[in-house]
Design a protein that fits this description.
This protein has 378 residues and is an alpha/beta fold. It has three domains: 1-49, no CATH class; 50-230, Rossmann fold (3-Layer(aba) Sandwich), CATH 3.40.50.700; 235-377, Cytochrome-c3 Hydrogenase, Chain A, domain 2 (Irregular), CATH 4.10.480.10. Helix content is 39%, strand content 10%. It contains 17 helices and eleven strands. The protein has helices at 18-31, 38-48, 64-70, 77-84, 98-111, 140-149, 158-163, 179-185, 202-215, 228-231, 235-238, 242-247, 257-260, 279-282, 334-337, 339-350, 355-372; strands at 12-13, 16-17, 53-58, 86-90, 117-121, 124-125, 134-135, 138-139, 153-157, 176-177, 192-195. The strands form four sheets. Strands 4-3-5-9-11 form a five-stranded parallel beta sheet, sandwiched between helices. Strand 7 (134-135) and strand 8 (138-139) form a beta hairpin. Helix 1 (18-31) crosses helix 2 (38-48), helix 2 (38-48) packs across helix 9 (202-215) and helix 16 (339-350) packs antiparallel against helix 17 (355-372). The longest helix is centred in the last third of the chain and has 18 residues, at 355-372. The N and C termini lie far apart (56 Å). The model is unreliable at 1-9 and 337-378 (pLDDT under 50). Bound molecules: iron/sulfur cluster (2 copies) and FE3-S4 cluster.
């Protein structure tokens, strides 16, 4: 598993020319809200320094979080990840097994004490002293405490590790608990960053690691310990279907005219209005535009948001946050109060002085179009 530092040739990094590698780092820098020029600094940091040792602990998980790192296409992200970090221990990817693997983990922890990054995927079963998940005879609960205590930072990757995810769904038979809560209850103060998602976008993981390596600190986090660069905005704010939401054009059923035309999926249960993530911008699997759930025609179910994904019914309507649709359009609830509310919206729009006439005409036209769109909007 270990790749010698020499294997990173400075003119060919993970199959990319140095120029393309700097370009790639610049893209990651922009994704993190840094100036584009920082790309060169990141590229320099990760190729000149000793690669950061990473130990990966898998608890109650489905291996999807690992797969998401390995199943990317262009530019071979898994190669970048495996060549830019020194992955010391990872149950699924290790060549060794059994005692050999555990011995290596202990040796690596000792040699890299205080310097390694601990990545955790999966939630930690805490019921009955954690007996529901054991690795090499030790519970994941004990291993997390042991491995996190000597780490420089902990990255909880995926919704299971960040807030419990699938294993914590009601009735949570194993007492599945997120990594940060376990560490807090044990008084372990190693900083934790959560990268939720099921699975999360691998670029958000890679960006966080590269930021840490370059600047020797974690990126700015929100109140749920998520990197702000990736989770600072609602999906709804960047969704390509947002103009349809604002105009009141919705798919009502899968396969109906509105669905085929790419209208907003709010009425099919899209949780984009209450889910913070960069899915519409960062996209998945390097296959181009539209490569994210809503882009393919499926409502976002809020997999990255605590209290939304795996908690709310799949097709229940979202509870929109910060929605400020233009007042010249009928509101999303307009159909409930009929023409009166559309007339009221026209009056509100009209209060903007000279815009009165134009606003009323626009609403009237929308009202006329409503007639022709039966079955696709409400
Ligand atoms: Fe699997 Fe999703 Fe949990 Fe990752 S977050 S381990 S993909 S269930
Ligand atoms: Fe996009 Fe969903 Fe918001 Fe509609 S409700 S605009 S589909 S995020
Ligand atoms: Fe998950 Fe919604 Fe993004 S389902 S992958 S948070 S679009």
């Amino acid at each position: 598993m270990r790749i010698d530092q020499e294997s990173i040739e400075h003119d060919n990094i993970a199959g990319l020319s140095r120029r393309d590698f700097v370009k790639f780092c610049s893209t990651l820098a922009v994704g993190m809200g840094l100036p584009v020029g920082m790309g060169a600094q990141i590229a320099e940091a990760v190729t000149v320094q000793k690669r950061p040792p990473v130990l990966w602990l898998s608890a109650q998980e489905c291996t999807g979080c690992t797969e998401t790192l390995l199943r990317t296409s262009h530019p071979t992200l898994e190669k970048l990840i495996l060549e830019l970090i020194s992955l010391e221990y990872h149950e699924t990817l290790l060549v060794g097994a059994g005692r050999q693997a555990e011995d290596w983990r202990e040796k690596s922890m000792k040699e890299n004490k205080g310097k390694y990054i601990l990545v955790v995927d999966g939630s930690i079963p805490t019921k009955d002293n954690g007996i529901y998940c054991k690795i090499g005879g030790k519970t994941a609960l004990a291993l997390l405490g042991e491995m996190a205590a000597d780490a420089a930072a902990v990255i909880a990757i995926g919704s299971c590790a960040s807030w419990g995810g699938v294993p914590s769904a009601d009735p949570n038979p194993t007492g599945a608990t997120p990594a940060h809560e376990v560490l807090k209850s044990r008084g372990i103060k190693t900083p934790v960053v959560n990268i939720p998602g099921c699975p999360p976008n691998p670029y958000n993981f890679l960006s966080t690691v590269l930021y840490f390596v370059t600047f020797k600190k974690l990126p700015e986090l929100d109140d749920q310990s998520r990197p702000k660069f990736a989770y600072g905005r609602l999906i709804h704010e960047n969704c390509e279907r947002r103009p349809h939401f604002d105009a009141g054009r919705f798919a009502i059923q899968f396969g109906d005219e509105g669905h085929r035309k790419g209208y907003c999926l709010y009425k099919l249960g899209c949780k984009g209005p209450e889910t913070f993530a960069n899915c519409p911008i960062q996209l998945f699997n390097d296959v181009g535009s539209g490569a994210w759930p809503v882009g393919t025609g499926h409502p976002c179910f809020g997999c990255s948001e605590k209290g939304v994904g795996f908690t709310l019914p799949l097709h229940s309507p979202a509870r929109p946050k910060y929605v400020t649709p233009p007042s010249i359009f009928p509101g999303i609830e307009a159909h409930k109060s009929g023409g009166a509310s559309i007339a009221a919206a026209a009056v509100v729009a009209g209060l903007a002085g000279a815009a009165l006439g134009a606003g009323a005409v626009t609403v009237k036209k929308l009202g006329e179009k409503e007639e022709g769109r039966k079955g696709t909007e409400e």
